[in-house]
UniProtKB/TrEMBL annotation:
Residues 40-67, 96-190 form a coiled coil. WD repeats lie at residues 224-265, 308-350, 359-391, 480-512. One of its GO terms (biological process) is autophagosome assembly. Residues 44-171 form the Autophagy-related protein domain. It comes from Ceratopteris richardii. It comes from the Eukaryota. Keywords: Coiled coil, Repeat, WD repeat. InterPro entries: ATG16 (IPR045160), Autophagy-rel_prot_16_dom (IPR013923), WD40/YVTN_repeat-like_dom_sf (IPR015943), WD40_PAC1 (IPR020472), WD40_repeat_CS (IPR019775), WD40_repeat_dom_sf (IPR036322), WD40_rpt (IPR001680). It holds the Pfam family WD40. This is Autophagy-related protein 16 domain-containing protein. The keyword S-adenosyl-L-methionine does not apply. The keyword Kinase does not apply. Gene3D superfamilies: YVTN repeat-like/Quinoprotein amine dehydrogenase (2.130.10.10). Transmembrane segments: none annotated.
Length: 512
């Protein structure tokens, strides 16, 4: 800029000089013509140099403008950055103020907590002596506990010794029982048997029944296609070879096992039938169904006499008293068991239990009833009061079947642990534990059975076989093959034969 100003001043001076020369030229043109010509030439060359300098200065000015524009842009950016930094500083200031407020609050809270800590430390100092005293008491109690455990162990040893002596006496009684059986079979000493051997002559409402020796079945007599979608229950009529079965087709059917033909069919149920029970006179059938009800059919007419309601879940098991045909008992998955008056058709008592009941039955004198539950426990109940009399941890998994022997002194249970146990009702102790290699219980309602002479136990397996054990030596007597599906039910006739087994496909096999 300074150079440009100087060039302008120089140009003005030259113009003034030119004007003065032209003025003088008019006066001294002639005298100074040569000089003027020389001066004109000098001025022309100087003007050319000045134009080049002007062009250079203009280019330099353009560059300066460009540089100024860049500086201006940088200035705008810097101004924006300054504004952003001011906003950030404002936010930081607000955060700082909030932190200072929080710090003040935290200091107050710390002071309060310190005061509480001092208070707790004071209380702890008071509790330490009490804790020391309590530890001494605990140590004394542990010593007493060890002494009690030792005393308990000694008592258990004495109790086990006493039980062994009782078992020996029971074995002697069983030996006497077997001896009397042999004497009765050899000489038909009915009077001696009725006086000395309990269970050889059995009395019912219809009169006396003679003892029948049962042989383990070996061959298949009939195969009956009984129920669609599976047979869930099957029992024989008392002192008869007529079989009563129920299934998922909602029907109860009566079968002539000699010919394998259908006698009659009872309908009206709205769901699967899980269990059936018969009175001593075989005049009606009581069915436990999945629609939360029990159905009371008359055998002669096939009509439903009563529909018993009261359960809130599926009814899984039912039994009728051996003493009175008007008293029935049912168990359901609502954790209740109900007593029923079959004459009037309503529940007379409800027993609440801790686990779902899968199976139940009355004892021979109906003073007790036993129930098997999903928790694997076998429970004995007083029929008059509905209170529990005894309970036994019978199985490691749920119990699927409970049945009382014909004499009434043995209870057979089946569990999902693939084991079958026999218990003595009098001593509440296990008599036999039956299991076999490859034998598996297939459902929560698999029913096993014990023969009328209490010598054999039969149970179905998941592989379609029927396993028969000898109770005396707890060994497998035989294995019957003939089903193409898992066997759910086994039932033995009071007459000694046949043995019936039913599978998941609804087929019933009769063995003899």
């Amino acid at each position: 800029m300074i150079m440009l100003s100087r060039e302008k001043h120089m140009a003005m001076a030259i113009e003034e000089a030119c004007w003065a020369l032209r003025h003088r030229h008019s006066l001294e043109e002639a005298a100074h013509a040569p000089a003027i010509n020389a001066l004109a030439l000098a001025l022309k060359s100087q003007n050319t140099g000045l134009q080049e300098k002007v062009q250079e200065l203009q280019n330099e000015l353009v560059q300066c403008y460009r540089a100024q524009r860049q500086v201006s842009e940088q200035l705008v950016e810097e101004v924006g950055s300054v504004k952003a930094m001011k906003m950030e500083i404002s936010q930081k200031t607000q955060s700082l103020e909030q932190c200072q407020a929080d710090l003040l609050s935290s200091r107050e809270e710390a002071a309060r907590l310190k005061a509480t800590l001092d208070e707790k430390l004071g209380a702890l100092e008071l509790l330490v002596p009490e804790n020391v005293e309590l530890r001494k008491q605990v140590e004394n109690l542990e010593v007493q506990s060890r002494m009690l455990k030792e005393e308990n162990r000694m008592l258990i040893d004495r109790w086990m010794s006493q039980k062994m002596q009782d078992a020996e006496r029971l074995n002697e009684a069983n030996a006497m029982y077997q001896d009397l059986l042999e004497r009765m079979k050899a000489g038909r000493l009915e009077e001696l048997a009725s006086q000395q051997v309990d269970g050889i002559v059995r009395c019912s409402e219809l009169g006396a029944e003679d003892y029948v020796e049962i042989k383990s079945p070996r061959k298949l007599k009939h195969t009956i296609q009984a129920h669609e979608r599976g047979c869930t229950t099957a029992i024989f009529q008392h002192n008869s070879d007529v079989l009563v079965s129920g299934g998922n087709d909602r029907l109860v059917k009566l079968w002539n096992t000699r010919s394998g033909s259908l006698i009659s069919s009872l309908s009206g149920c709205l769901s699967s039938i899980f269990d059936v029970a018969l009175p001593a006179d075989n005049k009606f059938v009581l069915g436990a169904c999945g629609d939360h009800k029990l159905y009371h059919w008359e055998v002669s007419s096939g009509r439903i006499r009563h529909c018993l309601t009261g359960h809130t879940e599926k009814v899984c098991s039912v039994d009728i008293s051996k003493v009175s045909s008007n008293v029935a008992l049912s168990g359901a998955h609502d954790r209740t068991m109900k007593f029923w008056d079959l004459q009037r058709g309503y529940a007379t008592n409800t027993v609440v239990c801790h686990s779902n009941c899968n199976a139940l039955c009355f004892t021979s004198d109906a003073s007790l009833f036993c129930s098997g539950h999903m928790d694997g426990t076998l429970r004995f109940w007083d029929s008059r009061t509905g209170k529990i009399a005894n309970e036994i941890a019978a199985h490691g998994q749920g119990i699927t079947s409970v049945s009382v022997s014909r004499s009434g002194w043995m209870v057979l249970t089946t569990g999902r642990d693939n084991q079958h146990n026999l218990f003595d009702v009098r001593s509440m102790e296990i008599c036999a534990s039956l299991k076999a290699q490859g034998h598996r219980v297939s459902s929560n309602w698999t029913r096993s059975c014990i023969s009328a002479d209490e010598r054999y136990v039969a149970a179905g397996s998941e592989n379609g076989s029927v396993v028969i054990w000898n109770v005396k030596n707890c060994k497998v007597e035989s294995t019957l093959s003939g089903h193409s599906a898992s066997v759910l039910v086994c039932s033995w006739s009071d007459l000694g034969k046949p043995l019936a087994s039913a599978d998941r496909y609804g087929n019933i096999n009769l063995w003899q």
